[in-house]
Amino acid sequence: MCSVWEATRRKVRQAMPRRAERIPRNNSDSARRTIRHGGQDESSCPPYLGKETYSLKTITKTRLIVLLAAGITLCTASHADVNAQPEVHPGRMELEQTSFTAKTWESDGSHLTAIQGKLTYGERPVANALVQAGTQGRTIPTKKDGTFELLVDRSLIVNKLVRVVSVQDATIAGKPIEKGEADTILSASSAITVYHPIEVTKVMPSDTDASQVKVHARFRIEKGDRISFFRVDKYRISGQVVDADGSPVKDAIVWIDRDGGESFAKSTPTDRNGRYEMFYWPEEEETNLTVIVGTRRFELPEGKVFILPRNTSVDLRIRLPREGSVIDDKPSELVCTTSKGATYTGLLAGLDVPPGTPYFVTIPDREGRFVLTVPKDVWEKRPLFFETLLTKFVARDKILKAGDELPVGFVQPGNHDPRLLAAAP
């Protein structure tokens, strides 16, 4: 190849004269004449000679190829630079365990479980970032290797997000993180779920509606666990506070307690209609009644006490005296009547189905057994169960008990309630 390139270069040099005749800058026929270089027409000259060249440089094919190669390289590099995108690594949080069965609270702390987590950016650990479980948990800094330890309280059912809440002091390989890194690290999260396992024991057609099925299920309770299912928790004391003329008193506080201040109940401030409410567990014991309005304190006559009936809610209407601080205990000034309803608290289960889907569920018995009445086509889609700790006032004369069927829509899942697939029968 070398000898061929050398011979070609000599031919080119021999064919090119030292100078070329200048082309006149006009449109005359003389300007259009053919320039000959060693007997060759302009049309046969290489394009790099041009039409207004004062001198011709000797350029070998070797140099031409080198120049072309360099141009291609520059174009390719430039194109690559334009299309190159910065490499983005995802922030990632990993937990060694995310699902936990619920456990009864114990004074020795055995209901707490420690787990390890790790925060990374790509494959590199993120140090000194702050992570938090839920919105109320304490913030935990990540270590140099990106790890952190989290205590899970298994005494409360929950579906809780563990997320990165701050990267202000975070570093990667000892260097402060950049803005792009911070955004993806802050988006890293994982979730932990604490729940009571549920198993379906049998599914039977409804006796009254062929389009529905009866799903018998139960909470699986470990030996020694104590679960508070949905039961009466407190009764309501509500009523009205008025002045001596019968006008409602706003922002008054009604206070009921036993001697020594034990088992007290404090009402909400009265509204513009003088209405208030509070919740209490009455035990037919002697109680003190106090009404506080601003800096004034109203009480029953000395030596008098108030006795609330057991296992019922009451409506208590109080008229304050025109003068002094003693509440007259006459029926016209202090009127107490029973009222319906109670506050219930405890564990319930339901189905995670679209809003408006009609189904019924019963209150679990002490063994955790309950029954759902569900449209057959809904159940065939194998919906998830949910569990919730519900506190709710139910205004009805009859007290709810285990096995009673709750109305449609009574049990609704909260944002942080666990969802789970029940074990098949």
From TrEMBL:
<keyword id="KW-0121">Carboxypeptidase</keyword>
<feature type="region of interest" description="Disordered">
    <location>
        <begin position="13"/>
        <end position="44"/>
    </location>
</feature>
<protein>
    <submittedName>
        <fullName>Carboxypeptidase regulatory-like domain-containing protein</fullName>
    </submittedName>
</protein>
<keyword id="KW-0645">Protease</keyword>
<keyword id="KW-0378">Hydrolase</keyword>
<dbReference type="InterPro" id="IPR008969">
    <property type="entry name" value="CarboxyPept-like_regulatory"/>
</dbReference>
<dbReference type="GO" id="GO:0004180">
    <property type="term" value="F:carboxypeptidase activity"/>
</dbReference>
